[in-house]
Design a protein that fits this description.
Order of helices and strands: HHHHHHHHEEHHHHHHHH
Helix content: over 70%
Radius of gyration: 22 Å
Largest sheet: 2 strands, antiparallel
Number of strands: 2
Number of domains: 1
Structural class: mainly alpha
Length: 473
């Protein structure tokens, strides 16, 4: 019944019918809730991965932490490639042109998955040297390299998953990606349980129970994640191509031969996003290089802190995904009256949720870090970092959700430049300077101040900028 109500509300957008404020808010919540849950389960998977590997010691954690920012860069670029097509689909569905939307989907399957294969090959080739470039030491370079090589092999699978989830969300289907995100988390835990730890005997209700295990530690974590993603990506493609109400490819016939007009639009939307992600991820890598000389404990605490902090900002990304869908469909329908209202509602919701999450993170920092690692030095550094970052969460939400709004309106060039300005002019220089005197604490103070600055400039563009000029009609 809830799905029918959601579809009815989406139909009001496409048909140009009036919507009350209550209906608009209900639709924002309907799309945001499953998107938030999907993002949270994805982050929980990272949290569980980190906790399982963290039990193997600081070196194992540092091995993943060293290359983590590079994996983000590769994943972010793949996500932008998918966005270039699924934003087009949102516009076309909003304009009631379902057939053209399916044509774009066919183009995306060929172009985006091929792009993922190229990215995976590049990652695999550089994997032996990457830890050295990032300033890692001999104790962790070997395992870090192996982890990144396995991750790179899985990039085409990750790319497929991102495309499938993005297309379903653009059609208004937030439920299936959310459920499959939870499925992936469960599968990841199961695979990791048998791959990370060695075979062991445990006492269970007075009986000795033998549990088989591969004992692959960091390598096992990588294999487990890729295996879980493979199953999930296959299911996403099944629901997208054969079960989706609007986008299933069995409705009509078409070809997968690339067409320049689709590719050109995808480059217009995803090109600035991809360039932004490469340069921003380079900034994250630069932060890793700043942290690396501070020692293994600092690398591990920094990595754990980022994973835990992700639990706070993932709801923001979920609401941002919903905003992209709502703004995108409003753009396609030529509904300027709804576009700004959906944008403001989404941003306010995101800031409220992440402010609450920041409070939870500040209070629960010792508990969260205690779950991640048994090493006391790492715990203390991590708690300090999390409590600094908690103050930035509302403004970080503003930046995240505003960006989702702008993507839905096909306005990506200026927002991408704003992100780059904030990272490279504010965060990186400030991190480098403060790390000299305050160590890891200085790095996280710089992060907190930069996120507040970024949120401020995004709110200013939302209120006074000309982002709506990218709309059709």
């Amino acid at each position: 019944m809830q799905k029918e109500k959601k579809d009815d509300l989406l139909l009001l957008i496409r048909q140009g019918k009036p919507m009350t404020t209550a209906q608009q808010l209900r639709l924002v919540l309907m799309l945001s809730t499953p998107a938030i849950l999907a993002q949270l389960t994805t982050t929980m998977m990272q949290y569980i991965d980190a906790a399982m590997v963290g039990s193997q010691g600081a070196n194992a954690s540092a091995s993943i932490g060293l290359v983590e920012t590079t994996t983000w860069m590769m994943g972010s670029v793949c996500s932008c490639a998918a966005a270039g097509f699924y934003v087009q689909v949102a516009h076309l569905l909003g304009a009631n042109d379902d057939k053209e939307a399916r044509s774009v989907l066919r183009q995306a399957l060929a172009a985006v998955i091929g792009f993922g294969c190229v990215m995976g090959l590049i990652g695999f080739i550089i994997s032996p040297w990457l830890p050295i470039w990032l300033g890692g030491n001999e104790d962790i370079n070997g395992t870090a390299s192996a982890y990144f090589a396995i991750f790179s092999i899985g990039i085409p699978i990750f790319q497929t998953s991102m495309l499938g989830a993005g297309m379903l969300r653009s059609s208004g289907n937030m439920l299936v990606p959310s459920i499959l995100s939870a499925v992936m988390m469960i599968l990841d835990v199961v695979f990791n349980f048998f791959l990370i730890f060695p075979s062991r005997t445990v006492d269970f209700m007075g009986m000795e129970l033998f549990i088989p295990g591969a004992g692959l530690s960091v390598v096992g974590a990588a294999i487990g994640t890729v295996s879980a993603e493979t199953i999930t990506a296959s299911l996403l493609m099944y629901f997208l191509c054969f079960r989706s109400k609007d986008l299933r490819l069995t409705i009509d016939k078409g070809n997968f031969k690339p067409k320049w007009n689709y590719i050109k639009k995808a480059l217009h939307i995803g090109g600035p996003m991809s360039i932004q992600q490469v340069i921003m991820s380079s900034a994250y890598i630069a932060t890793t290089i700043i942290v690396a000389p501070l020692g293994t404990f600092a690398i591990a605490a920094h990595s754990f802190g980022i994973v835990i902090e992700s639990l706070c900002h993932m709801p923001g990304y979920g609401i941002g995904d919903a905003a992209t869908t709502l703004v995108g469909q409003s753009v396609g329908a030529g509904r300027r009256d709804l576009t700004r209202k959906f944008a403001y509602m989404s941003v306010v919701l995101g800031m409220g949720v992440m402010a609450l999450m920041g409070l939870v993170m500040y209070i629960g920092a010792p508990f969260f870090m205690g779950m991640m690692t048994p090493v006391e030095e790492v715990r203390q550094l991590g708690v300090m970092a999390l409590r600094i970052e908690a103050f930035a969460e509302p403004m970080f939400a503003a930046a995240i959700v505003c960006y989702g709004v702008f993507v839905g309106a096909s306005d990506t060039l200026i927002p991408s430049g704003m992100n780059l300005l904030s990272m490279w002019v504010v965060r990186i220089p400030m991190s480098a300077i403060l790390a000299l005197s305050l160590g890891l604490q200085g790095v996280w103070i710089a992060m907190c101040l930069e996120l507040c600055f970024r949120g401020t400039i995004f709110l200013c563009r939302l209120r006074w900028g000309n982002w709506m000029n990218a709309m059709k009609g």
